[in-house]
C-alpha cells in the first residue's frame, strides 16, 4: 500500500464525493477511504437494519414496517433545488445518468397555527390564505419589481440599490407586512433566521429568483429528489471518480494523518499500512471533531442540529394528501431564532414500504431541551408510528489547509437544500487547486 496519491479523501459524504469526482476528472490520482462500510458518511441513506443498528442496537426492526430492502432513510434531510448549483454540477458531470429524480409534491409554510401551500401559480397566489387582498396587490408589485430588475437598466431599479440597500428597505418600499416578509424570507429565500433583513438585498434577490425559476421549471414545488434516497448522490459521484481512475476503500479505519518533517502532510495510516499523499481532504470527524484537545483538532464547533426521523402511516394532515412535501415553520411564528423544517418523502420515492411515510423534523438547537424545540414540527405530523432522534454538532475548519495541505470540509447544516454544500465544495476546491471551480464539458463520453 506504499503507493503515492495526489489526493487522499477521507469520508464518503456528498461534499467529499463531489470533490473526489471532480478532482479525478481533472486527472488527479485520488484514493477515497471511509471507516464505514457504506457510502455517504453523515449524508447516507440507511436500510431498516442499519437504521436500528445505529439508533437502537438492542432492537430488531418490527415486522410491520415491511422489508429491509424497501428502505433508504436519509440521515440528513435535504432536497435539490431544480435550478440550483447542485443540479448544474450533476448535469455538467453527467452524473445524472446514474440517477432518477422525482419532484417533491408541495412546499408549505406554517402561519398562525396552520399550514398553507406556498403558491406555485398565479391562480394559487390569488386564492392563497397567506395574504389579504390588499397585501396580495403589494406583494404582486414586489415580485414584478424582482422579475423586471435589470442591472444595466436604471429605470427598473425604482430607486433601489440591491448592493447597498438592505432587504428591510426593499420590504418597506413595497409596504409588505411582517407575515409576508416571513413568508418571502423563509419559505422562498430559504433563510434559517432573520439576520438577512439588515444586510444588502442582492443575495436575497438572487435566492428568490432561484426559487421562482426552480418553481417554474416543474410547477408544484421547486424541489426534486433522487429515487432510492440521498445516499444515491455520493455513490454516483464515487462512480464518476472510479471511471476516471479513482480508488475506493470502504470499512477502512483511519488511524493517523502522517505529517512530514516540513510540516506538510505526507500520508495516511490505516493499521500497519500507510499511503503517501500530497494533499488530504476529509470531513470534520477525521480531524479531531469532538475532541477537547485543541492541539489535535482542526475544527471548531459552531452549534448543534436536532433531527427527528419519524415513520408515519399516513400523509401529513393539511398537505392535500401529498406523497412528499416540505413544511417551513418560520422562527417568528414559534418565538425562536431559527426556523424548523419538516421534510417528508414516501414509497413513491423508493425510500420506504408502501403506506409508510418518512418525515424528518429538524432545527438548530437553541436551548438545553432540544426535543421540546422541534415540538411545533412534530405536532403537525399526526400520530407518529416510530421516531429516531439525533443531536449532531456542527463543525467548520479552523485552518485553510494551505500551510500543511490538509483540507477539512464543513458539517451539513440545517438548511433544507444543497446550496450550502456546493458553496463548501467550491471553497475547498479553491483552497486545494488554487483556482475557482469552473465546470467544463468533458471531452470524452465514457460509458459506465
Automatic annotation (TrEMBL):
Record-linked InterPro entries: FAD/NAD-bd_sf, GDP_dissociation_inhibitor, RabGDI
Q: Which Pfam families match?
A: GDI
A single GO molecular-function term is: Rab GDP-dissociation inhibitor activity
Query: Under the cellular component aspect of Gene Ontology, which terms does the record hold?
Result: cytoplasm
According to its UniProt entry, the protein's GO biological process terms are:
protein transport; small GTPase-mediated signal transduction; vesicle-mediated transport
Identify its protein family. Belongs to the Rab GDI family.
Record protein name field: Rab GDP dissociation inhibitor
